């Protein structure tokens, strides 16, 4: 789940990112197309390839929801006691960190009068806190009702891409990382956000770069990724709610140790003691 973040920093990061398609659009795109001259136009490479993106969503869901069925999580909502208020949806949008507010504002802009629209004043008031004031007792039921609406599902997909997926993939490509490295960035920004605190994604990356050069700087990809995962583990241990580092130790590190830089199936990993497999 994301940590508190500075929304203006996120906006600045996403403004420089090259947008990729949302899940709904990406799934409809062919892997490659032929031009009139008979040459082949390259498909998306890396984590933004539709098949790899789905794998990424399954792996994150294994940690966030103990399930590979990420598409069943649009209606998920609970307070997990981590100081961020309600955590909900496919990526763990939080009432206390601003991303849930952004999501409901987008949904309401697209579909006024939706079940969550009346809670916008309360979401603005509790932003930055773990308070439920103005949200209880009806907010969780309203969220689950909204999750039946395809427009709300699309809004969740779009905000996931704008705030987390696109920035992570683009930063990973700029650093010369392959699919696994891009996923390591994505999982980090999902949990830690990209605010100004020492455990934010950007500062985890800076910590890694102090230990190893990125491939874009002429470094070895495997060496750099070990440094990044070490920095990620350090960041997780700074917070009690994230001190279990198995989503790195028995998942991402397993793929890296096997040399699976392209995140190719079959994939086997464990998170919080539970075993998962993608064939």
Describe the structure.
By secondary structure, this protein is mostly helical. It has a single domain (7-29, 41-278), classed as Up-down Bundle (Chitosanase, subunit A, domain 1). It has eleven helices and seven strands. The protein has helices spanning 7-16, 23-26, 50-64, 99-110, 120-126, 139-146, 150-174, 179-192, 201-209, 221-237, 246-257; strands spanning 33-34, 40-41, 77-78, 87-88, 93-94, 267-271, 274-278. A three-stranded antiparallel β-sheet has the order 3-4-5. α9 (201-209) packs across α10. The longest helix is centred in the middle third of the chain and has 25 residues, at 150-174.
Distance between the termini: 26 Å
CATH topology: Chitosanase, subunit A, domain 1
Q: CATH homologous superfamily, by name?
A: Chitosanase, subunit A, domain 1
| Shape-level CATH architecture | Up-down Bundle
The whole-angstrom Rg is 19 Å
The share of residues in helices is 40-55%
How many strands?
7
Query: Order of strands across the widest beta sheet?
Result: 3-4-5
Principal-axes geometry comes out as: globular
CATH class: Mainly Alpha
- Global mean pLDDT: 87
The total of helices stands at 11
**How many separate structural domains?**
1
What is the N-to-C order of secondary-structure elements (H for helix, E for strand)?
A: HHEEHEEEHHHHHHHHEE
- Show unreliable segments: 2-43
Report the sheet-strand fraction.
Answer: 5-15%
């Amino acid at each position: 789940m994301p940590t508190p973040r500075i929304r203006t920093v996120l906006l600045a990061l996403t403004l420089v990112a090259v947008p990729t398609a949302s899940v709904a659009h990406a799934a409809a795109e062919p892997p490659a197309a032929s031009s009139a001259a008979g040459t082949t136009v390259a498909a998306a490479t890396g984590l933004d390839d539709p098949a790899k993106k789905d794998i990424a969503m399954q792996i994150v869901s294994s940690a966030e929801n103990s399930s590979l069925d990420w598409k069943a999580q649009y209606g998920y909502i609970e307070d997990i006691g981590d100081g961020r208020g309600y955590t909900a949806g496919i990526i763990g949008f939080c009432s206390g960190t601003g991303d849930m507010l952004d999501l409901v504002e987008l949904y309401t802009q697209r579909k006024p009068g939706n079940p969550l629209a009346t809670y916008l004043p309360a979401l603005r008031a509790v932003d930055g806190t773990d308070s439920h004031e103005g949200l209880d007792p009806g907010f969780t039921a309203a969220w689950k009702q909204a999750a039946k609406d395809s427009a709300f599902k699309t809004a969740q997909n779009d905000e996931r891409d704008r705030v987390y997926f696109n920035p992570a993939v683009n930063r990973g490509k700029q650093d010369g990382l392959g699919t696994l490295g891009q996923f390591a960035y994505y999982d980090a920004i999902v949990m830690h956000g990209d605010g100004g605190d020492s455990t934010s994604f950007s500062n985890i990356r800076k910590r890694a770069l102090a230990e190893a050069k990125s491939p874009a700087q002429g470094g070895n990809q495997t060496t750099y990724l070990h440094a990044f995962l070490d920095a990620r583990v350090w960041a997780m241990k700074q917070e009690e709610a994230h001190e279990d580092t198995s989503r790195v130790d028995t998942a991402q590190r397993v793929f890296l140790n096997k040399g699976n830089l392209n995140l190719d199936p079959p994939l086997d990993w464990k998170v919080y003691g539970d075993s998962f497999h993608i064939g």
